[in-house]
Amino acid sequence: LTRCRRSGARLDTALNEASLEPREAALAARLCFTVVQHHSLIDAELAKHVKKTQPQVKDILRLGAAQLWYFDRVPRYALTNEAVSLCKKTAPHAAGMVNAVLMRLPDTPPETDDLSVKYSLPVWFLEKMRSLLPEDELEPFCESCNSIPPVYIQRNTLKPYADQSGVALRENGGYVLTDPSALEGILRKGWGLVADPGAKECVDRLAPDPGEQVWDVCAAPGGKTLMAAFAMGNKGRIFATDKERRKLPLLRETLSRCGVYNTDIRQADGATYTPDKLFDAVLCDVPCSGFGVLRKKPDIRFRTETAHFPALQLGILSNAAKSVGDGGRLLYSTCTLLPEENEGVTNAFLRENGGFTMTGQTTLWPHRGDTDGFYICLMTKK
Known about the structure:
The protein is α/β, with parallel strands linked by helices.
């Protein structure tokens, strides 16, 4: 938490680089996620008890408050002792104050009608969502942003799922992980991959058929490339590119583990690179602000620089469209809910590219279908 505050590091990056044992890593992640998801409400209550303190001491107080309010099995004396112990290592003079504040906090989170404070969401984002959703859906949406999502497993149809213990089958053919200890084996044996149903919906809408030529423009980390290969039964060809070379080795390793061999991988910038052939289907899952995945990446709520995304997205989409063959499909998707990155981009593209027609578009909302927030737009070249 301190590293994220000081240097702006991503929370998932800071956790990964902490090199903790699996059980400790899981607990640390949940602690940090909880602090970030409820930081406004926690800080509002702490302000009643302490006027000014060192930032790192504030981090310790936030951890204590988060455990008190959102971790049922942690007694107050235990979390207070842990907080005091942490404080003695970093700011010994504040240990008594930390003890006193944590002993005075209420047993449950304070009540408030201010949704921005209650769910620790930026005011500008909350107002944007208010303009897009019916009033009775606004708070359920906010609540979903701070929920703990299921771990969804999309099955690898190229390999028989020999042991289905630790998962529960969903109606759409995917699985929900019921035993976390089963995940390592599922991934290692290539039986499936962790992917949200919203990501699978993108591939389903593109509907790549066996034998087709497909371009996944911004492929890493590779989930949609894999699901396209599953749908194609390893037939045809998938051309997978990504701007960042460092992400490609993991993609190659994952494809190999899952038995996928109909894929060519290349480092390339989707905004400028033009392949030497046309494709039946092109998938543009573009970089975005990420405001549809707040429940998985809670620190995205602190993102303030989003204005540059639409121009970047339109550039990738317009360039990729040049490689769609006659009658081919072009799918644009994001994991954000901001209209300027979604309908704003596809509408601008269609105004400038009369050779394409929109076949359909949809927005997936976390509180409606327990998916990540996704925008999906399918277009066809005349």
